[in-house]
Amino acid sequence: MAFPGLEYMITSCVLFLRELPKTSWAKIVKVAKMARKLAQDDPRKVFHSFKVGLAIVLVSIFYNFRPSFYGFGDNTTWAVITVVVVMEFSVGATLGKGLNRMLATLLAGSLGVATHRVATLCGEKGQIVLISLSIFVAAGTVTFMRFFPEMKARYDYGMLIFILTFSLVSVTGYGENELLEEACERLLTIIFGSILAITICICICPVWIGKDLHNLVSSNIEKLAQFFQGFGDDYFDDSKNNTVVVVDKSFLQGYKSVLNSKTTEENMANLARWEPCHGNFKFGHPWKQYLKIGALTRACAYKIEALNVYTNSEQTTPNELRIKIQESCRNVSSECGKALKESSLSVRNMIMSTGPNPHVANAKNAAESLKFILRTNPWEGADLLQITQAAGVASLLIDVVGSIEKICQAIDELASLAKFKKIETTEPTQLLHRGMVQPIPRDDGSDHVITMAE
Amino acid sequence: MAFPGLEYMITSCVLFLRELPKTSWAKIVKVAKMARKLAQDDPRKVFHSFKVGLAIVLVSIFYNFRPSFYGFGDNTTWAVITVVVVMEFSVGATLGKGLNRMLATLLAGSLGVATHRVATLCGEKGQIVLISLSIFVAAGTVTFMRFFPEMKARYDYGMLIFILTFSLVSVTGYGENELLEEACERLLTIIFGSILAITICICICPVWIGKDLHNLVSSNIEKLAQFFQGFGDDYFDDSKNNTVVVVDKSFLQGYKSVLNSKTTEENMANLARWEPCHGNFKFGHPWKQYLKIGALTRACAYKIEALNVYTNSEQTTPNELRIKIQESCRNVSSECGKALKESSLSVRNMIMSTGPNPHVANAKNAAESLKFILRTNPWEGADLLQITQAAGVASLLIDVVGSIEKICQAIDELASLAKFKKIETTEPTQLLHRGMVQPIPRDDGSDHVITMAE
What we know:
Two copies of one chain form a homodimer. Chain A is mostly helical. Chain A has helices at residues 4-41, 44-64, 77-86, 91-120, 123-145, 149-171, 176-203, 209-237, 256-259, 262-272, 287-311, 319-322, 326-348, 358-375, 384-417; strands at residues 351-352, 421-422, 437-441, 447-451. Chain A folds into two domains: 44-203; 209-448, Up-down Bundle (Methane Monooxygenase Hydroxylase, Chain G, domain 1), CATH 1.20.58. In chain A, helix 2 packs antiparallel against helix 7 (176-203), helix 3 (77-86) runs parallel beside helix 7 (176-203) and helix 13 (326-348) packs antiparallel against helix 14. Mean pLDDT of chain A is 84; it is low at 239-244 and 431-454.
C-alpha cells in the first residue's frame, strides 16, 4: 500500500465505528429499561409529559394566530414562558404556581408602573437614581422575605416573580402610556398562559397531590402493619428450624422508607392546600392532621428500628428462653399489626370506624399479659446477658402499644374532621381473650390474677 | 345632632382608626422580631438580599445604557430575567443554575434554529405542522426525562430551560437571518446575566454550600456526642436526689434534628458538586462520603431515640438496682461521647487523626465490662419487669459502640480521601483502665476474668 498512515487511520476508524454501536446500544438499552420501569411504576408521569407537550403546542398555535387577537402583541412569548414554567406534575403545584404568578405580576406590575410614573417627575438623572434605588430596596426586601419559613412554603414562587416583574417594568424605557399598555398586555398573556396550564392540568388525567398525600400516609401505616404482622413469625421462628429457607422478608424492611418521609409529607401538604375540592376531598380538608399522623407514624417507625437493633444484635436469647414469652409477644405484635391495618384501610377507604379499634384493646390486653409474665420472672437463674435481647424486645413491644393507640386516635380525629363516611359493621370484631392473663393491680401493689378459660 | 347616622359612622370610623394602629403595630412588631431573629441566626441571609438587590441594579444600569452595546437589542430584558432567576443563596446553586441555563439555551437554541430552517422548506402549512410536532415531541420527551432521579438531581433546571428556549425559538415568526441574530443576541444576554450573577455570588461574601454541608455533618455528630456525654448523668442521677432542680436538658434533645437530615444533606451534596475549589475544599472533594457519614449518624440517632424510649417508659428500674450497672454504663456513654466529640472536631478542623480513636477502644472495653457485669446477674431475684428498663439501656449502649466505631471509620475514610492535614499529638490519650473488668472467653465457654488494679 502506498499510504500506511492512511491505512492505520482507516483501521482505527473502522474499529471505532464497529465498537460504537455496541457501547451506545448498551447505553440506549439501559436508559430505555429505566424509562420503562419509571413509566410502569407511575403511568401518570407519561400522561404528564403528553400534557406538557399538548399545552405548549396549543399555546404555540395561539402564538401563530396572534395578529387576530386584540391586545396581544409580541408579548405572546410570555404566554409560552408561563405555560412551560407553571405546568407541574400535580394540580396543587400548578395551581399554586399559576396563582402566585398571576397575583405577583399584577401587584409588581402596578407598583412598577407607579414607581416609573413618580420617577419621570424627577428629571432624567433623578429618574435613574430613583428607579435604581427602588429596585434595590424592593429586590432586597422581597429576597429577605423569601427566607421566612411560612412565606417560603406558600409564596416563594410569587415573590420571585414579584422581583422579576417589578425590575422589568421599572427598568423599561417606554413612555408612560406605552408602558401601561405593555404591562397590561403582559399581564393578560400571563393570565392566559396560567389558565391554559391549569385547565389542561385539571381536565386531562389530573394528579391530585392531596390524594397522593392521603394514599402515602395510609400506605406508610400499612407498611408498619406489615412489619408487626410478620415480626412474631420472624423473631420466634427463624432460629427454631435451622434449615436455610429463602423467604422474602422485604415486607419487614418496608418501614425504612417511613423514617425519612417528613420532608415529602410537608411539601405535599403545602401543595395540597392549593387544590379545590375533588372526589371525597372537600374544600378545607384537614391536611395538617395528615402531618400529625405522619409524625406519629415516624415515631412508631423509630421504635421498629430499635426492635430491629435487638433482633440483629450479637447477643441472641436462646430459643428455649425465648419461647416463654412467645405467645404474648406474638399476640401484641399481631394485634398491633391488625390495629394498624384496620386504621390504614379506614383512611384509604375514607370510612369512619364506629367505635374504638378493638385490636388496640386486644394489644393492650396482650401487653398486660406480657407484663405479667415478665413479673413472674420466667427466666429465673438464666444469664442476664442472654436474656437482654428478649427482655428488650418485650419491653419495646409493650411500649409500642401506646404509639399504636396514638396513631389510631389521630386517625379517628382525621375521620371526624374530614367527615369520613360511617358504615355500620354487622359483625363486631371479637375481643381477644383466648388464653389471656389479665392482671388487675390491687391497692397494696400486689397483683390479683384473672385467668380466662379458653 | 341633626344626623345620628352620620354620628354613628363617624364614631365607628374613629374607633376603627383608633384600633388600627394597635393591631397593625402588633403585627409589624411580630414580623420585625421574626426578621431580626432570622438575621441574627444567619447574617449571610441579609448579605444575600443586598447582593440580589445590587445585581439587579447593575443589570438595570446595563439595560439603561444598552444602545451603546453592540448586539444587545430589546433582548436585554433576558439579562434581567437571568439575574433574578439564577441568583441563589449558595454558590453551588447559583453556579448549577447558571451553567444549566447557559448550556440549555445554547443546545435548545441551535436545535430550534435548525428545526425552524428545516420547517421553512415544507411550505406554510407544512411548517406549522412540523414545528408543532417537533415542539410536542421535544417538550414531552424532556418533561419525561425530568423524572429520572439522576437527571433531576443535576439538570432539572437545564431541562426546563431547554423546553422553554426550544419552544420560543421554534415558534417565533422571524425570517431566517433575523432568527439567527435574535437567538445569538438572546444567548449572549443570558450568558452575560449568568456570569454577572455568578460573579457577584462568588465575589461578595460567598456562601459555599459545600462548607455548610461539612459543618452540618460535623455539628450533627457533635449533637450525638453531647447526648452521650450527658446521658449517664441524666439517667443515673435524676432519681437519686428527688429535689426538683430545673436543669436545661435541651442538649439531650439536639439529636432529634439529626433524624430528619437525609433530604437536606442530599440536596446540599448535589449542589456542592457544582462548586469550584475553595478554602480547604479541593476540586473533586469526596461529597459522597458525607452522605455515608450522614447515614451512619442517622442510624446512631435512631438508637438514641430508642434509648429515650426506655428512659421515658413507665416501667422504671429502681435506683438501687440501676446503681449496679452505673459505672460501666456511664463509662460506655461518656467514652462514646468523647469519641464522637473528637471525630466531629477532626472533621470541623479538617485534621487527620494519627491513629485509631482511643476513645472507641475505651468504649469497647467499657462495653465488655458491662457485658461481664450482666453475665454475673447483678439483679438476681429481682422483678424482671422492673429490670427490663435498665437491661434495655445496657443492651442498647453495648450495641451503640458498634455504630460509633463505624462513624469514626467513615470519618477516617473521609480524612484520607479529602487529604486532611496530619498533626502529630505529643500527648497520647490514655487508655481507660481504671477499675475496668475485661473478660476473656475461654474455649469451654466459661469466662476467665482479669481484674485490673486501680
